[in-house]
Amino acid sequence: MPRTVHIIGAGLAGLSAALKLSARGERVIVHEATAFVGGRCRSYHDATLGMTIDNGNHLLLSGNHAALDYLRDIGAADRLIGPQAAEFSFADAATGQRWTLRINDGRLPWWIFDPARRLPGTRALDYAPLARLLWAPPSKTVGETIQCKGLLYQSLVEPLLLAALNIDPPHGSAKLASAVIRQTIAAGGRACRPLVAREGLGSTLIEPALETLKGRGAIVRLEHQLRALRFGADRVEALDFGKETIVSTADDAVILAVPPYAASSLVRGLEVPTEFRAIVNAHFRIEPPPNAPPILGVLNGAVQWIFSFPGRVSITISAGDELVDSHREELAQKTWSDVSRVTGLPPALPPWQIVRERRATFAATPAQDARRPGAKTQWRNLVLAGDWTNTGLPATIEGAIRSGNRAAALLAR
Ligand SMILES: Cc1cc2nc3c(=O)[nH]c(=O)nc-3n(C[C@H](O)[C@H](O)[C@H](O)COP(=O)(O)OP(=O)(O)OC[C@H]3O[C@@H](n4cnc5c(N)ncnc54)[C@H](O)[C@@H]3O)c2cc1C
What we know:
7-stranded mixed sheet; binds flavin-adenine dinucleotide; alpha/beta; 20 strands
């Protein structure tokens, strides 16, 4: 009888582990607590807008190699769209000024020396202190490492780190900021092309993965929440799903790919991140202006990024904890007024929806980062996965997929 690998949680970490294992011919069962697959990265039909929307706008970069490999594996790499080069358009909501950052392809950052490519009003020398982030000790915050003020910080470093770390950057971990910079800007423009799932997260990252898993014989059980794990001396002996208990043979294995608060309630003594930051998205049913960039950074407004999709304009506010309990209609009005100002779309509020993810990511502080466990546990058949495990990256699609790949690799025999 071949062994079974039980994967708990059908977010991207669980799905990527399932894809790797099923590709090796392993028997895989994915158990998901909710009625849908994708976890924090999913699409759903929104009745108010009468259209399918994403729980939140997700940006990938061309240097997210694990994510791109995952997409190639499920035959969906062509569903991401983005410019041919690493270009980031910005607009200042207060002054109306617009500019585009153009990072050159190679590793040598000559874009910094070219006034037509770098941030207007900055000099090449202004960028030098950023190098300090690359070698900061793990205990340091961004605020303890670089000066968090001035034009370069406010117009470039702050928006990029806020998006990547989902935390007010001065409080963010310099080590995680460094990991982001190393794998993007420091790796050259070829690693920084912004990519978005134009037709939605579901049809790009989730449904093709389910199809592929089905084709490889993997089983996905929805509304099948793991309630408890029964531990023996050195292994998990049974999985308790409430109405059903699955006894695991000596060969079977478990990948726990649930969020940290769920993992710590299932595994005694497990230290996990305990603080989180929210992300707020507003979706507006309206055709974006012709030639609108797929994503536009906004400074000096309530919104931080504007995403343009067919028939829909969506905005993102990272580290949006203060807005989580705010009045929905006021939030829609306020964010739309920014969108209207910078895009020239009419000021009248179009049909809208607000989606607030309270625990969008763990708080990327040095203290919370230090609480992230590795994938291995003291039980020989239990492995952890998830964007919150110690991937060396902030909580991102890339981190989640790498964690799933690593969990699958640890179970290789
Ligand atoms: C609004 C928003 C915007 C984001 N933007 C970006 C972005 O632009 N770029 C980027 O790279 N990343 C972004 N992220 C982060 C990215 O979505 C996550 O890092 C990634 O989806 C995490 O995947 P995961 O599998 O680790 O966890 P999850 O997606 O949380 O998956 C865990 C799964 O486990 C299930 N589960 C929980 N308990 C149990 C149980 N007991 N039994 C069975 N199943 C259980 C859950 O229901 C869930 O499906 C964003 C996140 C949000 C919320």
